[in-house]
Specification:
- The complex is a heterotetramer, with two copies of chain A (318 residues) and two copies of chain B (302 residues).
- Helix content of chain A is 42%, strand content 19%.
- Chain A is an alpha/beta fold and 318 residues long.
- Chain A folds into two domains: 5-175, Rossmann fold; 183-317, Rossmann fold (3-Layer(aba) Sandwich).
- In chain A, helix 4 (62-74) packs parallel to helix 6 (93-102), helix 9 crosses helix 13 (303-317) and helix 10 (237-246) crosses helix 11 (262-273).
- With 302 residues, chain B is of the alpha/beta class.
- The longest helix of chain B is centred in the first third of the chain and has 26 residues, at 33-58.
- In chain B, strands 1-2-3-5-4 form a five-stranded parallel beta sheet, sandwiched between helices.
- In chain B, helix 2 packs across helix 3 and helix 3 (63-79) runs parallel beside helix 4.
- Chain B is globular.
- Chain B starts with 14 loop residues before the first helix and ends with a helix.
- Classes of the chains: A alpha/beta (318), B alpha/beta (302).
- Chains in contact: A-B, A-C, A-D, B-C, B-D, C-D.
- The A-C interface holds A 86-87, 90-91, 93-94, 97-98, 101-102, 123-124, 129, 132-133, 135-139, 257-260, 263-265, 267-268, 270-272, 275-280, 284-286 and C 86-87, 90-91, 93-94, 97-98, 101-102, 123-124, 129, 132-133, 135-139, 257-260, 263-265, 267-268, 270-272, 275-280, 284-286.
- The complex binds thiamine diphosphate (2 copies) and magnesium ion (2 copies).
- One thiamine diphosphate sits between chains D (62, 64-65, 68, 100, 102, 149-152, 179-182, 208, 210, 212-214, 270, 284) and C (36-37, 60, 62, 87, 91).
């Protein structure tokens, strides 16, 4: 069964990343891009054409990538650090902790090809751990854009905020899900669909699938609220609380490990503030080989999978 | 977080291919480099053919680095190391580690040629649930010593293997192959320093010096030269060779003469053997069309 | 007000680590120790004396430390990797993921001076993130011993299990809390005090303080159950579930960040299986300078702090 | 995770000390190395005294490395770099980074001597909620450019500072001081390669070559020699000096003559200036008794 969101055109947000980065760089000379031999895979070809001196390639050296970027911030630049998410977050973790977050430098970390975007390349190239790892770095803002508009907003926000920020840049194609005129604010989720029975809180690639789930559930007479939790940090605790109070249960959906990402953030609010059943959807462990679509299906990270989890939650709540 | 690893069943050896390999490789190991060269070259050509068709069936892969590393791989696995594909975990085996794990197709094609698993399985490269993942995973593929893919991992692990043999007073040896771009990873210089400190004469590190990395030439990205001096200053015995000359490779793989670990800087050509791929950065991970594969195979047949 | 546990003698478990490691090495030739210029701080002086060739020092190089250890495991050794917890987990994270967990090597990672044991040395030397980071590495067992007996058991278990394991080696002095004859099993918490009103689930340094809290609460007529959740992974889900069913709320206490450690693991079970209020105690962000005791006090990680949280939970539950 | 950082208020400059520093350091910067040496030595002695009493009051610290690095620090901050303690964040300032952050007491004592904060505050070193944390934290201590403590961080960051100046076409320069043991961290070799590739002639990396690390001699732990060759092979201009000779240090801090970044290998003595601490590994972080501090101060007074 196809849903409205699934029929919509889909977009590779890397184009929006490249475009918005260039636009920002045009009006702000402090912006530079820093990469690890990833000019192509980090979508910086266009940036290099327009700003050849403002693209810094440190080669295949992720610790240096982040350290040098912190130094560039010290020198007054605003570095967009662009590298494959698993290497950026896994290989340079202590640099992210010490040089960026703890030193409090305005460095914008762009995790490219996050989640299971590099499906067939396997667990070393999957970045299912990044949200858990980055949530456990104090002082880091975490943004998971869900579509082209949010990708652009995330970049603009990160420049304006002055804060150390991690952004997951989407690669797997997604439909546009952001309602026209929706504000983009730290700590503020977007309620894309209102609903009264159950709430689905999703990020990134899972948002359109959550919308698909809501459509499926509607046909079954279930009213599902869909929240796009763009900022995993700071989390919109009020939106979670409202969902806990106003609906009978929450399903969280993320293209990442279940241990410490969105699901854990939501569960903390729920258990500390207002109890309601939660069902977490995500990736349980190292994933097998396969395309991103195959893997998402494999782990039930589909409209159907989310709808099923929502029904289970409602059964439990009753 | 405790959980099962991936789900597909691991590959098993191909007994008959392993048997052929056992005899032929024993002969090639014992032969002089000059004697073995032609036969190693022949095997390399057939491995290159398998690489191309493997990437063709997957529709993905890193063909440039696969073709530059082939002769280094074949000479290690067929002409130098003592391996038994039917007992891939036997403690006394020599160890081979491909640190530049993105060249899995080259490793798989070579392992299959030795009989570590049936050659026919190469067509499953990167298929859903396939054991032949885009980067080597040891629980799935016999002959893989450690999972690589992120650059800068295989060399420290290989150093640990060699150190282990030294600690046990055992004679098996370890060969690790690195990309040249990969040498920009600091973890490798940590390992280089460790291996020299512990005088791991049983360790050979081979740099596939194709002068290209993912996005550009190494020297335009981050200068590696003078690379031989770097290795020498880190305490290694350095041998610079033509990485497509099987005789030179086999010679370079000979034991250390200084009691120090040996670094082989193998000058290679990325995309070697396929004229339109040679030394062209875009073939790092561009996928050939069917027509290009046909042309490439034709060139290799000549 | 002092409690029984606080009056007990306290132990620096590093002595037990050193002693047990030597004992294990005596009967198993495969055991080696690997460190990063940390012979002293990793408590390997004694090991070196007895087994000079079996102590491998790779110098100040944590990526190499873990990579080399994975190689030693490949060669048939059982390496105990001993390094300060923040550097081991933060600097070598991708090696832990790829070379140890994903490659599935029997490497035993010993995080020395964990939590805020290096109080005055500041956030770069605190390891409040390790439980969150390690929980988000699939296939890694995580043990947080609470006293000398558990420290020894953890080492023995890690050798026998054959699994990649992370152990937090206690440095801050703790009283003995393990009941005589208590089994040491993966996925099995120890119920040190039984209770019916509220449950405190604690790990490591917090266990004795949880016992202190139970004593305080008892004087106020509140019956608190105390669980020592030695294995953060695999978690004793049944013990959590029983606590959720049989008591009115759960307090979790850990010397670590609140984002993704013990608290998150417990909250997941609670929200997915049986709802009950949870209050998480831990460290909210980078800590200031000060001794370990000072910092634990500063963050309310004391018997009084735990008791207060338990009372709050009971108020909410009522 | 969003949250406030630590709680204690940041330190503020000591205006009057800063004023004295402004004049005196301008003179020392302009003076020839030979002329400046005696005065720099005098300042170093008083900084050494502060280091000892600072560690005494804290009851903790890394006295050996503090004393080996003092002359390098003082010559950088008093005799070489353009800094203004009253406006420590002015964009045009030169940058000083102490990569071996465990020697915070030496950095703090030197910064206090310049007036970045009142010298009296040194007694708060590592006290509860003190801004003078055991490792330098920039939001608390003016003059600290980046938070260090884990080894191998300051050098890449300093490389970024220097690259930033180069990109802006600005003339300010960056000096970073590393421990010799610290050179075992691969992240440093990544930075060394980056700085050479970008020809960061505005960057000086100083190795405090005291030949000891935490647990033993560097050469017994993990061989660093031939260290000068390592730096040279990584593309640096190398200057080997006596790291306690202020004239030699000031000369070595002079601008690059090759267009390449400059590595200063400063041969030093760990625990320098206190006979019973000199070149003894246990003084890496042993804390002197009150009597030992008295003896040490007496020696320094001579
Ligand atoms: C840690 C890490 N960073 C980045 C990458 C992405 N990557 C894959 S291959 C490659 C280029 C490797 O170049 P080189 O080592 O020269 O290999 P070869 O030329 O033999 O293909 C890069 C940057 C990676 N796999 N791992
Ligand atoms: C990443 C990291 N690993 C380990 C340590 C622990 N440590 C602190 S000081 C030190 C020795 C440093 O030796 P060296 O660089 O020679 O400094 P110095 O002799 O000048 O004190 C070590 C290993 C650390 N601070 N950071
Ligand atoms: Mg290459
Ligand atoms: Mg030293």
């Amino acid at each position: 069964m196809t849903t409205a969101a699934e029929q919509s055109p889909t977009y590779d947000c890397r184009a929006d990343f490249a475009d918005e980065l260039a636009a920002l760089a045009r009006s702000d000379e402090r912006i530079v891009a820093v990469c690890n031999d990833s000019v192509g895979s980090s979508n910086l070809v266009r940036f290099r054409e327009e700003f050849p001196t403002r693209l810094i390639n440190v080669g295949i050296a992720e610790q240096d990538l982040v350290g040098v970027s912190a130094g560039l911030a010290n020198a007054g630049f605003i570095p967009f650090v662009s590298a494959a998410a698993p290497f950026l977050t896994g290989r340079a973790l202590e640099q992210i902790k010490a040089d960026v977050a703890y030193t409090h430098r305005h460095v914008i970390l762009c995790g490219q090809s996050p989640g299971m975007a590099y499906g067939e390349l396997g667990p070393t190239h999957h970045s299912i751990e990044d949200l858990s790892w980055m949530r456990a770095v104090p002082g880091l803002e975490i943004i998971v854009p869900a579509d082209p508009a949010e990708t652009r907003s995330a970049l603009r926000w990160a420049v304006a905020s002055g804060k150390p920020t991690y952004i997951r840049i989407p690669r797997f194609k997604v439909p546009a899900v952001t309602p026209a005129g929706a504000p983009f604010e730290a700590g503020r989720a977007t309620r894309i669909v209102d609903g009264t029975d159950v709430t689905v809180i999703a990020v990134g690639t899972m948002v359109s699938r959550a919308l698909g789930a809501a459509a499926l559930l509607e046909r079954q007479g279930i009213s599902a609220r869909v929240l796009n939790m763009t900022f995993v940090e700071p989390l919109d605790r009020e939106a979670v609380l409202a969902a806990a109070r106003e609906t009978s249960g929450i399903v969280t959906a993320e293209e990442g490990l279940l241990s410490g990402g969105l699901g854990a953030a939501v569960a903390r609010v729920v258990t500390e503030r207002h109890l309601v059943p939660v069902r977490m959807l995500g990736v349980p462990s190292f994933a097998p080989t396969g395309s991103t679509s195959f893997l998402l299906e494999h782990f039930g990270l589909t409209a159907e999978g989310i709808a099923e989890a929502a029904r289970e939650i409602l059964d439990r709540a009753r | 977080m405790t959980a099962a690893l991936e789900s597909a069943a691991p590959l098993r050896p191909d007994e008959s291919a392993a048997d052929t390999y056992g005899q032929r490789s024993a002969r090639l190991r014992a032969a002089s480099p000059a004697e073995a060269a032609a036969e190693l070259a022949e095997i390399s050509t057939s491995v290159r053919r398998d690489i191309l068709t493997t990437i063709q069936s997957a529709g993905m892969g890193h063909v440039g680095g696969d073709l530059s590393v082939t002769d280094l791989l074949v000479t290690a696995l067929w002409g130098t190391l003592r391996l038994d594909p039917t007992t891939p975990d036997t403690p006394q085996r020599d160890r081979f580690v491909l640190s530049k794990g993105h060249c899995a197709a080259a490793l798989y094609s070579t392992l299959a040629s030795c009989g570590f698993f049936p050659r026919a399985r190469l067509s499953e490269f990167m298929a859903p649930l396939s054991p032949l993942n885009g980067h080597p995973a040891r629980l799935k593929v016999p002959g893989v010593e450690t999972n690589t893919g992120p650059l800068g991992h295989g060399f420290p692990v290989a150093t640990g293997c060699a150190l282990g043999a030294q600690l046990r007073g055992e004679t098996w040896r370890t060969i690790v192959v690195l990309g040249d771009g990969e040498m920009q990873e600091g973890s490798n210089w940590e390992a280089a320093m460790t291996a020299a400190h512990y005088k791991l004469a049983n360790l050979t590190a081979v740099v596939d010096r194709n002068r290209l990395q993912q996005g550009a030439r190494t020297e335009d990205t981050k200068t590696l030269e003078p690379l031989a001096e770097k290795w020498a200053s880190f305490g290694w015995e350095v041998r610079v060779i033509d990485g497509h000359d099987h005789r030179a490779i086999k010679e370079a793989y000979a034991a250390s003469t200084t009691g120090r670990p040996v670094a082989v800087i193998a000058n290679t050509v990325k995309g070697k053997g396929v004229s339109f791929m040679e030394d062209r950065v875009e073939w790092h991970h561009k996928v050939p069309t069917d027509e290009q594969v046909r042309l490439a195979l034709e060139e290799l047949n000549r």
